[in-house]
Amino acid sequence: xxxxxxxxxxxxxxxxxxxxxxxxxxxxxxxxxxxxxxxxxxxxxxxxxxxxxxxxxxxxxxxxxxxxxxxxxxxxxxxxxxxxxxxxxxxxxxxxxxxxxxxxxxxxxxxxxxxxxxxxxxxxxxxxxxxxxxxxxxxxxxxxxxxxxxxxxxxxxxxxxxxxxxxxxxxxxxxxxxxxxxxxxxxxxxxxxxxxxxxxxxxxxxxxxxxxxxxxxxxxxxxxxxxxxxxxxxxxxxxxxxxxxxxxxxxxxxxxxxxxxxxxxxxxx
Length: 269
Prior knowledge:
single chain, Nitrilase/N-carbamoyl-D-aminoacid amidohydrolase
């Protein structure tokens, strides 16, 4: 499977421009990279995130995303992990990811479950209440959005369902890029899966996004890595290596779930 991450430089608070730019970059990716899966970053329709008029700028129940990005997936016969968009639904705004198969059908959606309280994301967005696993071309996949990667119990919960590939879509700032790389690499190693990270770049309001999208194999080796600017990053994933890795160091067989009590910290009780 060939995965192409679109490290996009979106315009803050400008959905019309961002939709057009995303379409252009998807077309370019299909033409130049011939991927099986195209990946977009987090909240690429608005940037992360306008506070004064978020609801007015957000997609309405994902309709524009489904129509425009789903149509491109069908047109080119390519799977699209469409990053995430600010999305109006049920009286609130969600940070929602959509996944399209080669027929342009929505095969999965996911609302970001861990909202980044240091930026006040929890004051403007609603929390998601479910995890998401799906299949693309026979590969078992999962999806996290940005801050989610800091919660290893979330990835492990997905991993025990038999995940082979984890997509992480983000708008991660440049000053904490070492964290993004270290956390993503650790998730790949400890869960013995491929991890494809698609970050944004450029400035979003007062924040400089850091780029450095990356794809890791289950040993934590780097298959492809980007710099700081807008680019297409591609890697070919050989899932044939998974059985050997999981047999040689069988962490899932050797787990002892009865000892693990991931409870609520005392100050939150």
